[in-house]
Amino acid sequence: MTEYSKKILTEGFSQFGVKASDEQISQLEKYMDFLLEQNKVMNLTAITDEKEFVIKHFVDSVSIIPSLNEYNVKSLIDVGTGAGFPGIPVKIMCPDIRVCLIDSTGKRIRFLNEVIRILSLDGIKTVQSRAEELGHNPEYREQYDAATARAVAPLNCLLEYCMPFVKVGGIFISMKGLSEEPPYDFALKALCGFYLGERRYELKVDEEVILHRNIFVKKTNILPTRYPRNTSIITKKPL
Asked: Distance (Å, rounded) from C-alpha 58 to C-alpha 56?
């Protein structure tokens, strides 16, 4: 990572009140280098420019840390983590949080396990599974202080994928752009969710300013056992 990229990272983190030590910057650098090397043989990210990577992956990932601190989150599940965002940057910057990364693709899980080994991360694990299946597993169902997803699915679908993992009183954080969402009031009611609000922030890449937001939902009650439904039903007949 160039000194300029480190400066961008430090400045980007500071807008969220996050300060990276030299060791943490080194871990992020190793992660990025390994990811970009593996990206040559498997599809992990479309972003290969170093500066853009730092901003759109690392800075964006730590945007949820102030809320994790505010809600005293000790355990986090990252649903559909892909190449590990935001779960791995959060784990690097908040080593005391217990993190679970779930993804349905074996190649990505093997990649993530190697990242965990290379960075010597403790208190983090991976699970290869579909969210709608794992959400019925008592080992994972309603076991986490927070769930998050940095996904492109509509919020009414993401709620059904993610809320089953959240403890009563915990939160779901949906990492989104500013595109309009289909109505999700019924999904909130059905999935025992209470809308807490959203926080907007900027990611600046050269002359481009990207507006993102984090949407917060609190889990108010034990989820009915019929949720989550099969993925084909979730996508074809969202709540």
From this structure: 6
Alpha carbon distance 145, 183 (integer Å): 26
d(CA 39, CA 35): 6
Strands 124-128 and 166-176: unpaired
The model's pLDDT over 59-77, given as tens digits with 9 standing for 90+, comes to 999 999 999 999 999 999 9
Of 127, 125, 135, the C-alpha closest to 159 is 135
Q: 3-236 belongs to which CATH class?
A: alpha beta
In angstroms, the CA 57 to CA 51 distance is 10
- What is the Cα gyration radius of the chain? 17
Phi, psi of 47 (to 5 degrees): -100, 115
- Please count the other Cβ atoms lying within 10 Å of the Cβ belonging to residue 5: 21
Tokens of 149: 């997803």
pLDDT less than 70: residues of the chain = none
Model-wide pTM > 0.85: yes
Q: Are residues 146 and 173 in contact, defined by beta-carbon separation less than 8 angstroms? A: yes
User: Over the stretch 175-191, which tens digit does the pLDDT of each residue have?
Assistant: 999 999 999 999 999 99
